[in-house]
Amino acid sequence: MKLSARDATAYFRKPDTEKAGILLFGRDAMRVSLRRQEVIKAMIGPEGSDEMRLERISASDLRRMPSLVLDGIKAQGFFPGPRAVLVEEAGDGVTAALGAALDEWLFGDAQIVVTAGDLKPASSLRKAFERHGNAYSAGVYDDPPTREEIERLLAQSGLTDLEPGAGSDLNALARALDPGDFAQTIERIALYKLGDPNPLKCEEIARLAPASSEAVLDEAIAAVADGRAGDIGPVMARLKSQGAGAVSLCLGALRHFRILHGAASAPESIEQALARARPPVFGPRRDRMARQAKAWGVPRLEQAIALLIDTDLNLRSSSNAPDMAVIERTLIRLAMLGGR
Q: Of 295, 287, 291, 293, whose CA–CA distance to 340 is shortest?
């Protein structure tokens, strides 16, 4: 049986013990892995793996010995409690073995959890689970976590007391990060707030969020947008020492100024426009960009975008001018324009 997104979320929390198991498939291996962990933990409990109530079978082993799954679900565990058999990285080559195990499964046998990559609707493995009356199939897609999933993760981590705006920042962070990185960030925040009776603040979220791998580049763009022309030289020196590319810096600045322009020209308030921006803008960075959008105004932001587009074309041309010198000159001109 094929599970809808809503039914799949409910199943992940509380698997159906009267069915043989589930196939989890999707393009993002991390998302599939997180769902697999959630399902197995719900099936056999947090101690199930340590108590040897989980048997792992690779798809390659199953192709060589098709009876492994059937033997696994019928085996008796040393410790009492529910059991599960996990088949990882499955494909159409193991459809027959898994189909036979599904047909032979009886209530009380170990449940079957199968993970796979991105399976097309015509996949024989996918069809085997979707058409079987005693099993489920669920696609794990690249959608960001829902508000309910985020709230459940926060509750599990003890983060239930949030100041106004912190929930929105966490939702934006969930959209910006991979699921695994977001879960680790929540754990880091929970450890930071351990024993702290005060509500979680937006500043704390921004401080504990994963640092950008382009932090120095972001610093350079912030100096430009703030009109701090004197800070551009030292930051550019650091970028050069790290091997940063002029085109990447130009595109990053162009992306930043386009977000400012969209916020400054939006019919609603600048803060509301930034809240809808993609990628999301949250925390102190949102406040800083709101100030920048107000200070620059639409006309000067349009000048900045035009200058950056011209610079990008120049960098991609056959000009003999040093690329980093070209972009540095543009950034200084922009900072002086913004400082007027």
A: 295
Distances (CA, A) of 143 to 35, 74, 262: 13, 36, 25
Determine the longest span between alpha carbons in the chain, in angstroms: 78
- Which among 217, 215, 213 is positioned nearest to 246, based on CA atoms? 217
- The pTM score is 0.56
Distance CA 224, CA 6 (A): 45
Dihedral, CA of residue 181, residue 184, residue 189 and residue 195, to nearest 10 = 170
Q: How do residues 162-197 score in pLDDT, each as one tens digit?
A: 888 888 888 877 776 777 778 888 888 999 988 888
- Residues of the chain above pLDDT 90, percent: 42
- Nearest residue to 140 (alpha-carbon basis) of 294, 30, 31: 31
Which whole-number Å values give the CA distances from 133 to 16, 306, 315, in the listed order?
A: 13, 60, 60
Closest CA to 67 of 108, 92, 36, 104: 104
